[in-house]
Amino acid sequence: MTRTITIDPVTRIEGHAKITLHLDEAGRLADARFHVVEYRGFETFCEGRPFTEMAGITARICGICPVSHLLAAAKTGDKLLAVQPPPAARKLRRMLNLAQLCQSHALSFFHLSSPDFLLGWESDPARRNVFGLMAADPDLARAGIRLRQFGQQVLELLGGRKIHSAWAVPGGVRTPLSAEARAWILERLPEAKATVTTALELYKKLLDGPLQREQSTFGDFPSLFMGLVAADGGWECIEGAIRFIDSQGRIVADGLSEDDYASYLGEAVESWSYLKFPYYKPLGYPEGIYRVGPLARLNVCDRIGTPWADAELAEFRQRSGTAESNGRIVTSSFAFHHARLVEIVACLEGIEQLVADDSLMTDRIRARADLNANEAVGVSEAPRGTLFHHYRVDDDGLITRVNLIIATGQNNLAMNRTVAQIAREFISEPVAEGAEIPEPLLNRVEAGIRCFDPCLSCSTHAAGQMPLHIELVDAGGRLLAERVRD
Amino acid sequence: MQRRPYTSRPVIGIGNPLRGDDGVGALLAEQVGGRSVQQLTPELAEELSQLEAVLFIDAWQVPAGAVPQLQRLSPAGIGGDSHRLEPAALLAVSQALYGRAPAAQLLLVPAHAFEHGTALSAELQAVLPAARALLQGWLERHA
User: In this structure, is residue B129 part of a structural domain?
Assistant: First the structure.
C-alpha cells in the first residue's frame, strides 16, 4: 500500500502551503508535492477597473513586494499610453526597485532563513527563528532589522509610504527625489554596507563548513534560468530584455520581449495545487523547467556593473559554479541565499550611484497622454524573480482581461524537484511502517522551499478556471468521498 | 546609537482600515496624531525603545455587550511569527535588542464585523465614546 507523509503547515514563508511525500509500496520516495492551498483571485476582480488604478490595486496583492507589482503595472500603463517616461522617472523607478530588493532580501535572509543555518538544524524548533537569533546574536539581529528598515525607509522617502505606495504611475512617477531623502540615504548607506559585509563573511564561513551538504543537496539539478538583462548583458532589475541560459552556460534565448511571453512561456495546471506550473514552451512540460529570482539573475547576467558587486559575483561563481559550465553557472537552489546577499550589494551600490545624480531632483518626471493602445505587457524583476503584467482594456481604458505571471509560480517545478531531492537525501529508505519523521528532515524540507523565498500571496491568482480537488479520507487512509472540479 | 525624537503621539493603532471594525485602532490613533500599522513587526522595536510610554489600540473580538478596556502590558511572549507580533512580544523585542521597553498599555475596543469596507458596525460605534474617553485619559496622563 502506498503511504503519504504530510508536512502541514510549512512555516516561515509568505503564505500557507503543505508538502506531501508519497511513498511507493516498497516504502521508497516516489514523489514530492508542494501544495499551495490558498486562492485569492486578483486577476478576476481587476476586470472592469480603469487601467490607471492597476498600480494601486495590484500593489495590494502583497505586503512584502508591492513595489514589484506597482512597477510592472506602471510599465504596462506606459505602453497603453504609448509613452516613454522621462529619464529621471526611469531612474527613480530603478531606485525604488533596488530599495525593494534590498528590504525583501534582508527579510528573507535575516528573519526567515538565517535562523536555520546560524542556530543549527538540530536546534529547538521553537527557538529556531528570528527571535532565537536575537537571543543568540543580538548585534546581527539588530543589524539585519536595520538593513531591512533601510530599504523600507528608502521606499517611504520616495513613495510616501513603506508599503502600498501609488507613486509609480503610467508615464512616470509622482514626485522626484527630495534633498531630505538624499541626505538620509547618504547617512545610512555606510551602515547598510557594513551589515551586508558582515553577513557575507559569516555566510562564506558557513559555506566552507557546516553548509556543504545543504549546498549540494538542496535542489542542485540542471535547469534553465530566466531573467532580465541589460542591452550589454549586465544585471538588470527593471529594464532590458529576457534571457534564458542553461546549466552549461549556453544562452538558449536572448533579447526576448515581454510582449511575446506567450510564445515562450507555457502554464501547466495540476489538480493538487492552486499554483500554476510555468515552463519554457520550446522544451515542453515539464522538461522546460526554469528558475527565476536572485540565483537566476546572477546566472543570466554577464556582469553586475558595480565594483564590489562584480567582485562578489566572481567569488559566488568561483565558489559554487559547476564544472560543466566552467564555473559560470550555479545550479544549487541553496545558493539563492548567497545570491540574495550579492544582490543586496548590487542594490546598495546602485542606490549610491543614483542618489548622487542631480537629475533625479527634477520636476520632469511624468509623460501624460490619452489611451493609445488596447493591450500591453509590462515586466519587472521582483525579489523572487521576473514578474509579468498583461492587460487588455476597452476604448474607455477599462480592464477586460488581466494575466499576472508571478515569480513564485515560475519556480514551482523547481520547488517540487528540490523537495524530492532533499527528502531522498535525508530520509532513510525504505521507510518502515509507523516510522517517525525526524525534526531535522522536516526542517530541511521546509528550508528547501524557503531557498526560493516563495510568496504565495502573490502567486495564487490563477485566472479563469481554478482546479479544485477535495478528498475526504478516514483515519485508516480510506477515501470516503471525493469531488473534483476541472 | 543615535536617537531621534519621536515626532508623533506615542499611540499605535493596529488593524486594517479596509476590513470594517478591524480598522478602529487605526482610526482612533490617527485622530489623535498617532500612527497606524496593519501589523506589528520587529522594525518598530527600535522606535519603541526610545519612548517613555506607548499606547497600542486594537480591535477586540468579543461577544456583544463588552466595553472598551485598558490593559497594562509587560514584555512577554517573544517567539513565533516575525510578520505579526503581539504588542507584548514587540516590547520583548525592544527589551532584547535595545535594552529597554517603554511602559505600555493596550486599549481594546470591542469589534464585531470584519467584512470588506470602511464602515464601522453599529455596536462598535456605540462604544466609541467610551474608547475615546479612555484614550483621552491616557494621553492626559502621558502628555
Answer: yes
